[in-house]
C-alpha cells in the first residue's frame, strides 16, 4: 500500500509540475484547434484570452504575422511565469489597435478638399435586460456639493435628478453609476437614455468598466453627449473587449466632475439596452492618430488631430466626430489615391497586464494605438523584454475647462509595482512618454528596473510622478538606457503642453524614496535634458550618465530645469546646485552602428546598440 501511495503521489507531482505550450497562427490557425502545436495552432488573440492558462504555460505567436487585437495577460506563479512570446522565423509578431482606412470604398466627398469615412450601421439584435438593471447612485468626493433624488413620471419611468451646487476639479469627483451586473466579452451593446439639464454641458467620459479595483475598462466606446435644456434621447454604443469571456461586476459610470457646471440640475431617464452589431468601419473608440505613408514613399508621418471640421486647414489634418463615429480628413483627392498606408489608431491598450503577477512578455511588437502600448496597476514580477513599441498614443483622455487632454505611453506601471523589469525594448514615436511609473495612491513601488532600452523620437523618455505623501518608492532604477531626440516626434507640434525632455517628473510627494538614474545616454532634446515640475531633483540619485545636445557650446545651453530654480541652467550649474551627475559628462557620444540622420526605426532597422557607448 505504501508503494502504491508513493506512485500516486509522484504522478500527482508530475501532473502538477507540467506546463503547456500554445501556438497562435493568424493565417493558418483555427480557434477550434487544440493550440498545442504549430499544426494545431489557434488563430486569434481572443482565443488566447479565453484560455485558462496555468503557471508555467507559454503562448507563442507566429513571427512575421499581425493581429488587430489586445492581449489580456494572465498570472502565473512564483518561478513559474506565464510567458507570451514568438516562434518561427521573421519579424516580431505584431499587435495593432488600428483600422486600415486606406481602401477607396471607405471614403466619400464631404466638401472642397474634404473627405469623410463612410458611416457604419448599427444592427439591433434584441433587448439586453441584464444591462444596468438596478438603481443609479451618486458618488462624490472633495469639495463637491451634489444631491441625487429619484421619482417616477406619468409613464412609470424612473427619473433621476442630480443637482450640483459645486462641481469638481477632476472628472472622478462626481460619478453617476450603475454597478454589479453581468457582461459577456466581444458583444456590441447600445444603451439608451433621455437627459436634459438646466445648463447645457458636454459629457465626454462615459465608461463601461469593472466595479472594483483596479477599475479596468470592460468596453470601449465613442461617447460625446451634448446635454441641453430640452429632453433629448441618446444612444451610446459599447463594444465589450475580447479580453474576457464573462464577468459579473460590470459598471456604467458617467464621470461628471469637470463637465457638469455648478448650480446645475441634470435629469436622467434610463431606457434600457440592446445587443447590436456594427457593419462597416467600427470606430468603437477615439481615433487619436492616423499613421500615413504617401504612395511611392516609405517614410511614415502622423495626421494632425483637430477638434472641429472648421479647423481642418492643411493636408492630412483630421477630425474625429465621436457622435457619428466618422473621420473627416483634409485632402485634395480621395485619400486612397494619395496614400499607400492609412492606419487609424484607436484608443485601445495592447498588452494589458492589470494587477497580474508572474508573467513575461518577450519579443513582441505593439504598434498603432491611441492608448498605451503596455500597462497595468499593482503589477508584481512582470518582465517585458525585447519588445517594440511604435506610434503610440494620442487618444482623448478627457476635456477639462473646454481643453482636450490626450494621452498614451509606451509602458506604464500605475501606482504599486513590485519586482518588475523592462529591458532591451525599443520605443519610437510615442505621444507622451516611452516608460513611466506614476499614480496618486498611497502605494509602494519596490524593485522596478528599466535597463538597456532604446528610446527614439518620443516626447519624453522616462517620467515619474507620485502625488501621495504616503507612497513609498523603494528601489526604482533607470540604467543603461539610450534616449535620442526626445521631443522630435510626431506629437510635439500637436501638444498643448510641449515638454520635449528625456527625464520628466511631475508632482512628487513621497517621504520615503530611493530612485536611481545611472549609466544612461541622453542625446538631443527639443526642450530640456531634465525637466522636473517639483523642487526635489537633488533628492534623486543621478550619476555616471552622458549628456549631449547639438549646437554651439552645448554644455552652456540651459537644458536643466526644475521647480524652485529661476528658469533653466546649464550642466555645470545643474551639477553645483543639485550635487547630481558629478561623475557624468557632457560630451558627444560615440555610437556603435550609429543611426543615420534619415534613420527611421519603423523600418525595423537597428538603432544600433545605441545604448552602449564608448565608456
Give your account of this protein's structure.
By secondary structure, the protein is mainly β. Helices cover 6% and strands 48% of the residues. It contains 4 helices and 52 strands. The strands form 8 sheets. It has an 18-stranded mixed β-sheet that branches. A 10-stranded parallel β-sheet has the order 3-6-31-33-37-40-43-46-49-52, with no helix packed on it. Strands 10, 12, 13, 15, 18, 20 and 22 form a 7-stranded antiparallel β-sheet that branches. It is globular.
Proportion of residues in β-strands: over 45%
Radius of gyration: 25 Å
| Proportion of helical residues | under 10%
Number of strands: 52
> Whole-Å distance between the termini?
67 Å
Mean pLDDT: 90
Structural class: mainly beta
What does the overall shape look like?
globular
Biggest pleated-sheet summary? 18 strands, mixed
Poorly predicted runs of 5 or more residues:
1-16, 592-615
Number of helices: 4
Topology at a glance:
Blueprint: H1 2-17, E1 21-24, H2 45-50, E2 58-62, E3 66-67, E4 71-72, E5 82-87, E6 94-96, E7 98-100, E8 107-111, E9 114-117, E10 121-127, E11 137-140, E12 145-152, E13 158-166, E14 174-184, E15 188-197, E16 201-203, E17 206-210, E18 219-220, E19 225-227, E20 232-240, E21 246-255, E22 264-279, E23 287-294, E24 300-302, E25 304-306, E26 317-321, E27 326-330, H3 335-338, E28 339-346, E29 351-352, E30 357-362, E31 365-369, E32 374-385, E33 388-392, E34 395-400, E35 403-407, E36 411-423, E37 426-430, E38 433-439, E39 444-451, E40 454-456, E41 460-466, E42 472-479, E43 482-486, E44 501-508, E45 512-518, E46 521-525, E47 528-532, E48 541-543, E49 546-548, E50 560-562, E51 568-569, H4 571-578, E52 585-586
Parallel strand pairs: 1-2, 2-5, 3-6, 4-29, 5-30, 6-31, 25-26, 29-32, 30-32, 31-33, 32-36, 33-37, 36-38, 36-39, 37-40, 38-41, 39-42, 40-43, 41-44, 42-45, 43-46, 44-47, 45-48, 46-49, 47-50, 49-52
Antiparallel strand pairs: 7-28, 8-9, 9-27, 10-22, 11-14, 12-13, 13-22, 14-21, 15-20, 15-22, 16-19, 17-21, 18-20, 23-24, 23-28, 26-27, 34-35, 50-51
Amino acid at each position: 500500500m505504501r508503494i502504491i501511495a508513493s506512485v500516486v503521489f509522484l504522478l500527482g507531482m508530475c501532473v502538477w509540475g507540467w506546463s503547456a505550450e500554445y501556438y497562435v497562427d493568424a493565417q493558418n490557425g483555427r480557434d477550434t484547434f487544440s493550440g498545442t502545436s504549430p499544426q494545431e495552432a489557434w488563430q486569434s488573440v481572443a482565443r488566447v484570452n479565453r484560455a485558462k492558462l496555468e503557471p508555467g504555460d507559454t503562448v507563442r505567436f507566429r513571427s512575421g504575422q499581425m493581429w488587430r487585437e489586445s492581449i489580456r495577460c494572465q498570472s502565473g506563479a512564483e518561478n513559474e511565469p506565464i510567458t507570451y512570446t514568438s516562434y518561427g522565423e521573421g519579424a516580431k509578431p505584431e499587435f495593432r489597435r488600428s483600422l486600415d482606412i486606406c481602401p477607396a470604398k471607405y471614403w466619400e466627398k464631404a466638401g472642397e478638399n474634404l473627405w469623410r469615412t463612410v458611416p457604419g450601421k448599427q444592427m439591433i439584435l434584441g433587448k439586453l435586460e441584464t444591462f444596468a438593471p438596478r438603481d443609479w447612485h451618486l458618488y462624490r468626493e472633495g469639495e463637491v456639493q451634489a444631491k441625487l433624488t429619484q421619482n417616477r413620471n406619468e409613464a412609470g419611468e424612473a427619473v433621476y435628478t442630480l443637482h450640483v451646487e459645486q462641481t469638481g476639479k477632476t472628472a472622478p469627483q462626481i460619478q453617476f453609476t450603475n454597478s454589479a451586473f453581468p457582461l459577456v466579452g466581444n458583444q456590441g451593446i447600445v444603451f439608451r437614455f433621455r437627459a436634459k439639464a438646466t445648463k447645457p454641458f458636454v459629457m465626454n467620459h462615459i465608461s463601461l468598466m469593472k466595479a472594483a479595483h483596479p477599475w479596468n475598462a470592460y468596453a470601449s466606446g465613442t461617447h460625446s453627449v451634448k446635454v441641453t435644456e430640452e429632453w433629448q434621447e441618446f444612444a451610446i454604443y459599447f463594444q465589450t473587449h475580447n479580453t474576457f469571456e464573462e464577468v459579473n461586476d460590470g459598471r456604467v459610470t458617467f464621470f461628471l466632475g469637470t463637465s457638469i457646471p455648478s448650480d446645475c440640475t441634470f435629469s436622467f431617464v434610463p431606457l434600457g439596452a440592446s445587443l447590436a452589431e456594427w457593419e462597416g468601419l467600427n470606430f468603437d473608440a477615439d481615433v487619436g492618430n492616423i499613421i500615413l505613408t504617401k504612395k511611392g514613399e516609405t517614410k511614415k508621418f502622423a495626421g494632425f488631430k483637430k477638434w472641429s471640421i472648421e479647423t481642418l486647414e492643411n493636408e492630412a489634418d483630421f477630425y474625429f466626430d465621436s457622435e457619428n463615429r466618422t473621420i473627416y480628413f483634409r485632402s485634395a483627392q480621395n485619400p486612397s489615391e494619395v496614400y499607400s498606408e492609412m492606419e487609424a489608431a484607436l484608443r485601445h491598450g495592447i498588452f494589458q497586464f492589470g494587477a497580474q503577477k508572474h508573467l513575461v512578455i518577450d519579443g513582441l511588437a505593439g504598434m498603432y494605438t491611441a492608448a498605451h502600448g503596455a500597462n497595468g496597476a499593482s503589477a508584481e514580477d512582470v518582465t517585458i523584454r525585447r519588445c517594440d513599441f511604435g506610434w503610440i498614443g494620442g487618444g482623448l483622455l478627457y476635456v477639462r475647462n473646454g481643453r482636450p487632454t490626450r494621452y498614451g505611453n509606451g509602458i506604464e506601471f500605475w501606482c504599486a509595482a513590485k519586482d518588475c523589469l523592462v529591458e532591451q525594448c525599443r520605443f519610437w514615436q510615442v505621444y507622451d512618454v516611452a516608460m513611466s511609473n506614476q499614480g496618486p495612491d498611497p502605494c509602494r513601488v519596490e524593485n522596478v528596473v528599466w535597463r538597456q532600452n532604446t528610446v527614439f523620437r518620443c516626447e519624453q523618455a522616462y517620467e515619474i510622478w507620485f502625488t501621495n505623501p504616503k507612497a513609498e518608492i523603494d528601489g526604482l532604477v533607470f540604467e543603461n538606457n539610450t534616449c535620442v531626440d526626445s521631443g522630435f516626434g510626431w506629437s510635439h507640434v500637436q501638444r498643448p503642453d510641449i515638454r520635449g525632455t528625456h527625464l520628466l517628473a511631475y508632482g512628487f510627494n513621497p517621504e520615503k524614496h530611493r530612485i536611481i538614474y545611472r549609466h544612461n545616454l541622453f542625446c538631443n532634446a527639443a526642450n530640456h535634458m531634465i525637466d522636473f515640475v517639483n523642487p526635489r531633483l537633488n533628492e534623486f540619485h543621478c550619476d555616471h550618465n552622458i549628456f549631449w545636445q547639438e549646437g554651439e557650446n552645448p554644455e552652456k545651453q540651459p537644458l536643466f530645469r526644475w521647480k524652485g530654480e529661476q528658469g533653466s541652467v546649464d550642466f555645470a550649474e545643474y551639477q553645483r546646485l543639485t550635487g547630481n551627475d558629478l561623475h557624468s559628462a557632457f560630451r558627444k557620444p560615440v555610437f556603435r552602428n550609429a543611426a543615420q540622420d534619415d534613420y527611421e526605426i519603423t523600418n525595423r532597422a537597428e538603432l544600433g546598440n545605441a545604448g552602449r557607448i564608448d565608456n
